[in-house]
Design a protein that fits this description.
Elements (H helix, E strand, L loop, with lengths): L9 E2 L14 E7 L11 E6 L1 H12 L3 E10 L2 E4 L10
Parallel strand pairs: 1-3
Antiparallel strand pairs: 2-3, 2-4, 4-5
């Protein structure tokens, strides 16, 4: 399976107008697992979302309708990736 970032995604393109709206807070990239409002099973999608839209996507993931592969904050159009915190090694 190829990395999701190397494939053409459906939904919003990286420079979509939705990315630059004042209300946009999140970007998600995900796979559609079941038919529904996001697309058909197997589709790989990118969406720029408000806080409410992001919460709805999280609920869809809990229902196993989608699987979020990547998410990031959007601040004034800038995409700020989440990076897992590294565990600190104690001497």
């Amino acid at each position: 399976m190829r990395d999701i970032s190397a494939r053409e995604l459906k939904g919003h393109n990286i420079l979509a107008v939705e990315r630059f709206r004042d209300s946009t807070r999140w970007m998600i990239e995900f796979s559609v697992l079941r038919s529904g409002s996001y697309g058909s099973p197997g589709d790989e999608m990118r969406l720029f979302l408000t806080e409410d839209g992001y919460q709805a996507a999280l609920l869809s993931q809990q229902r196993r309708d989608i699987k979020i592969k990547r998410h990031a904050h959007v601040v004034e159009g800038h995409i700020i990736d989440f990076k897992p915190k590294k565990k600190r090694r104690h001497p």
